[in-house]
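Re: your question about DEAD/DEAH box helicase

S., sorry for the slow reply, the queue was backed up all week. Below is exactly what I fed in.
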Amino acid sequence: MNAFQKLGLDAEMLQAINDLGFETPSEVQEKSIPILLEQETDLVALAQTGTGKTAAFGFPMLQKIDFNNRTTQGLILSPTRELCLQITNEIKQYGKYCKGLNAVAIYGGASITEQARDVKRGAQILVATPGRMKDMISRGLVDISKIEYAVLDEADEMLNMGFFEDISAILSHTPKEKSTWLFSATMPKEVATIAKKFMRTPVEITVGSKNMGASNVSHEYYLVNTRERYAALKRLADANPDIFSVIFCRTKRDTQKVAEKLIEDGYSAAALHGDLSQNQRDLVMKSFRTKQIQMLVATDVAARGIDVDDITHVINYQLPDEIETYTHRSGRTGRAGKSGVSMVIVSKSELRKIKTIERIIQQSFERKDIPDGMEICRVQLFHLANDIKNTKINHEIDPYLPSINEVLEGFTKEELIKKVFSVEFTRFFNYYKNAPDLNSKSATIPDTHSDSTRYFINVGAKDGFDWMSLKDFLKATLSLDRDGVYKVDVKGSFAFFNTDASETKKVLEIFQDFKYQGRHIDVEVTKDSGGGKRGGKKGGFGKKKKSGFGSKDNKSGGGKRRSKDFTPSKKGGKGGGRSNNIENSLKRRRSKK
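Result:
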């Protein structure tokens, strides 16, 4: 008996499973499918990327809907168009023996008219990105008022991308009696919120622990100076000749820049990010799947559609701002039961994040050194030797052998081996013979809860700030790198942030009488930081601006000490604005003084 048959799947599903070569259900499939087939219930399933979640909800949905009815009965929401297309393709494969099945992908970047026409033909299942789905609902191009099943796939990523309002609006057009199935790799508070708001006593299934990383992925970090990050990336690639990897950057700009530099340096690489057209993205992914590209440099959002089982390494060129995102990144490797490696290139200021990630994924990182030039030469030589050993002889070469033997006549076996291997060795030796040691000497990961100071600042959401724009403003004002300011928590009229304790004096000095258009900003050490002297005195911000603070183009941000009469850059996050509440609060403060 097929192992899937024990889960309760019918003949059409089992036939498709047999064609796909599936033999044993994954843990999330084994736990989810029987429940979804036997019960009309809401479900929250927590499982890592690459564990077969699409089949876990795809087979039950296909088995339960009526293919003779052209009404839309199932809705699957996913964060990106790549993932949307991937799920649609898999649903069609799973339902290849379901006569009358019509599954339609709805996503941005393609003709909305054509998608509406496909839906009008009668689509029992819609697979959609939230933005395009909301647009089509508002235009009256789709009707989801009679759906029986709604799936939120990669729910944590959709919410991290800011789709909460879109998802809420979409679900408001669905019947209350439907079953909602939520699948997610992690369980941040936003996912718990949406489960509470839209689901009725859901059954919860957890594969591994919440937010836990896959057990067959090893985690390594390499400590380098920030300016050596790209050189370190190249060495890691050279030290792993068979690498087939995804390299993650924070921004589209960095993604494109790193990919272009790799290509210039002779590596088989390409970029994948949101600025590419759909056709360009499709071509890049096709080349990656066929391994014409060894190193795919991607943003977190673009990588959501990557479904490749043979990825050997994930390289975090930069750590994500949201630590939970690391779980998604590392889940790109170690798929389908294979082992994988997740590498992180970090600077000293980022070390605290490693500790936080360890706590979230419940696994330890191993610190490793960036290999030196001679180690890379050794690895490449043995890689060439194994390539030669494993190469099948092509006998089409036989007619040329007499002429080749004449050219090489007089050389001994040892001399020929030296000459053949010198071709590869010389190339790497010349490049690396004077290469410096890239490893930073700092060896310990700091405790994320020690040697840190928490501050109060009298600006918040009412001044136009969110956590990201305030962080950008603070790091520019304080001349700290991106990870020098952390734990930014923005409230209505005030906010909190942290720096390393070693920066406390600097922070308080810079914000002492810190002015913007003649007004003061108040920064104080909070009581839970062990006390401390006050920073600036009174104050607030001036007129609200759509532009932000802390761009690297802001010339006043550098140097040992910046001007206290701060002028914001035109780039970056949102700027400050003075609200009546802030002003009244500051007047009360001044009167007390």
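Residues 387 and 505 are 58 Å apart (CA to CA). The mean pLDDT is 82.

Happy to talk it through on Thursday.
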